[in-house]
Amino acid sequence: MSMLIRDAIIYDMEGSAPFKGDIYIEDGKIKQIGTKLSVRADEVIDADGLTALPGFVDAHSHLGGFNMLNYDECDFNEMTDPVTAGVSAIDGCNVHDKCFMDACKGGVTTMCITPGSGNPVSGLAFIAKTAGKDDIHELVIKNPSALKLAFGMNPIGVYGKKNRMPMTRMGVIKVMRDAFYEAREYMAKKEAAGGDSAKMPDYDAKLEAISLALSHQIPLKIHCEQFDMMTAIELAKEFDCEYTIEHAWGAEFFLPELREGGGAVNYGPVGVPTGYGELTHANIAEVKMLEDEGVHVSIITDSPITMPELIYIQAGEAVRRGLSHESALKMITINPAKTLHVDDRVGSIKVGKDGDIVLFNGVPALDVAAGVEYTIVEGNVVYRRQTGRRLWQKQVTSS
Amino acid sequence: MILVKNGTVHFPKGEERNVDILIDGEKIVEIGDNLTAGAQCIDASGCEVFPGFILPATSVGVYNYADLAHTDSDEKSGPVNPDIHVRYSLDPTEVRIQGYERHGITAFGAVPNDSALIAGQTGVYHTSGRTTSEMAVLEDAALKVNFIPSVKRTFASRDMMPMTRMGMASMLRNELKKASLKKADDAGYDPGREVLKRVLDKELPILCNVRERFDIETILEIQKEFGFRLILMGAYQADTLRDKLQKAGVSVLLGDLIDGSFVTYYDADILGLLEMSKKVLTAFANNGSGYEGLLWSAEKAVRNGLKVEQAVDMLSINTAEILGAADKIGSIEAGKYADISIWDGHPLKTYDAHINVCITAGKVWRAEE
């Protein structure tokens, strides 16, 4: 199976200036990039007048695990215990949910899908393509990809109501630290057993999951805003873990610490009302401040909390607030691919990488009217804008 | 006095002219060529000047984000509350901290939230002002009715009516019918009845929050029986009833088009809704999100083929007409409030357009960046 995309204006996100050219994809991988390629392909897309970008990468999503019309039916928050490290998002993720089509419509082809933030130690995230196969397990790039932690109002709100620890921020960090120490002891016992099954501690899925982070196999993916970010960095340092800061509202007040901490920031979403506490500083202008400080930044949607297409709308909003257009595009492609350690496969248009391409009529994050015409995953068209459809005669669903 | 000079000024229906705007206090007093006055001058050369955008229906400002355990927007002690008014929950500070100026939003419709069947009276306010009275553009703008699942969910859990759609329709009809009939003792204090009478007299429209086509069909039937003026919000399937809405003179607040949970699960057909907007008076809306959501909804419509000029109208003059405030806001016109935004480009054409100045009822805000 092969595909040739002809005459697109290519933003390869590899540092080249936009150029007009062709992209040839074979067996799911980009094989050639150039002008007027003389290759035969099973499918040819005339992309003259269109802009080609790598499929967008959303580093923080809950797609398939939240039913937005009935919040009680949420498969991504196992809120029965503050530490549920052993649960995996992939087991709660329904790839047949309508939201996955929204990802294709929004040009998002790779996502890191994570458990919710109801528990301080929430569970394991994974990285997958958004379309192309109809079984989530066949879409996976990496599983597990991170251990999700959550600071702040979400866990406090859950356990505060139950009069259970953690009811406060003091409690949240204690619960996390205790769990991490327990996992460290578990690891020590396993090592001491030296392969002798009689001396091994009882298998514990929760501690196994935390061990992955403590042994540098996966990073911590830490939901936090404002001063909770300082606690997050303290914890990551204490246990020598790689980490990413998720959401990061209020980052402008902690720029040097975020730089020195070394973790990448996955920023967003914005578009929420301004309130008090955690709602005080959701401001897309902060991505520019972070970039200026030298922090590696990506823009996230938290979908389906917001629509997947908000990835490029927020990038546009960042431009509106003064970010360079080039940086805005990086923050939704190559930056998140690097943060997720999947830039060997996605995040730019480069020979050898996956054939994940999004074609726009115009330039996203610059032209307001630019919308997705085609979304292509591994050389297969997974979304094409409908035109010439019949209006007024459609099936209306009823709940 | 403030003089906005040399800008490209946007008027309804796509009209653009290079004119000056003279502002005295809260109002625009003159529009013309080469105006001069002993006034503070804002040079808008090379800039695009728009009427202040209007957020037609939001509970932000009413919500009380300062204390999430005791919110102020949802009086759900009972299903029928025609005699409460949103103005008493409206917190000018909560409005101010939203930063609506960053997108040139100068006025908004404040509405109670989604749990009661008859949720209370709404008003139209400026986004800037010390007190609710200072902010008021039009109080008593509409009576908000919720015809959505959250109503039956709220009361079903208390073993109270309405726990079904039948119950919701029956209670709404009953309240309107009672108000339409002479009361045995008409002298007593009954503020709710007075409000409902104003609805029946077509003085006060019903702003009805709906979701599916099914909801709209029921509310249209009730409207036919009682003849009130009707505005729909949250009408994600309104396009399927385009001709009926047009015939009944119903207007529609679209949205929120970037709210995935509704757009996706109710299969909102953006192209269909935009096609509808050619026949039915329509404006963009968002309820409960930040200042960004309104412009983002308009941007989405533009991406789906809506003409930029019409999108601007659907953020300003159409919204003002639907809210019944077009004599005060919605366009740049002598006699109206000085609600104006000045950008270095067209925000619905390029993201590389930045706002420089936002003027709300004559008060000037300048972008900090």
Task: Provide the fold topology.
The complex is a heterodimer of chains A (399) and B (369).
Chain A: E1 2-10, E2 19-26, E3 29-34, E4 43-46, E5 51-54, E6 56-61, H1 99-105, E7 108-113, E8 121-129, H2 136-139, E9 140-150, H3 153-161, H4 169-193, H5 205-214, E10 220-224, H6 228-238, E11 243-247, H7 255-261, E12 264-267, H8 285-293, E13 297-299, H9 310-320, H10 325-330, H11 334-339, E14 357-360, E15 372-377, E16 380-384
Parallel strand pairs in A: 1-4, 1-5, 6-7, 9-10, 10-11, 11-12, 12-13
Antiparallel strand pairs in A: 1-2, 2-3, 5-14, 7-8, 8-9, 14-15, 15-16
Chain B: E1 2-10, E2 16-24, E3 27-32, E4 40-43, E5 48-51, E6 53-58, H1 92-96, E7 105-110, E8 118-126, H2 132-135, E9 136-146, H3 149-156, H4 165-180, H5 191-200, E10 206-209, H6 213-226, E11 230-233, H7 242-248, E12 251-254, H8 260-265, H9 270-276, E13 282-284, H10 292-303, H11 308-313, H12 317-323, E14 340-343, E15 355-360, E16 363-366
Parallel strand pairs in B: 1-4, 1-5, 6-7, 9-10, 10-11, 11-12, 12-13
Antiparallel strand pairs in B: 1-2, 2-3, 5-14, 7-8, 8-9, 14-15, 15-16
The average pLDDT score of chain B comes to 95
**Strand element count of chain B:** 16
Overall mean pLDDT score of chain A? Answer: 94
* Range of helix content of chain A: 25-40%
User: Could you say which overall geometry of chain A the principal axes of the C-alpha atoms support?
Assistant: globular
Strand count, sense and barrel status of the largest sheet of chain B are: 8 strands, mixed
Q: How many angstroms does the end-to-end distance of chain B come to?
A: 26 Å
Give unreliable regions of chain A as ranges: 388-399
- What is the strand content of chain B? 25-35%
Oligomer class? heterodimer
The number of E-state strands of chain A comes to 16
Helical proportion of chain B, percent range: 25-40%
Class from helix and strand fractions of chain A = alpha/beta
Number of helical segments of chain A? 11
Structural class of chain B: alpha/beta
**Main beta sheet of chain A, described?**
8 strands, mixed
In whole angstroms, the N-to-C terminal distance of chain A is 40 Å
Topology of chain B as a string of helices (H) and strands (E): EEEEEEHEEHEHHHEHEHEHHEHHHEEE
Inertia-based shape of chain B: globular
The stretches of 5 or more residues of chain B where confidence is low (pLDDT under 50) are none
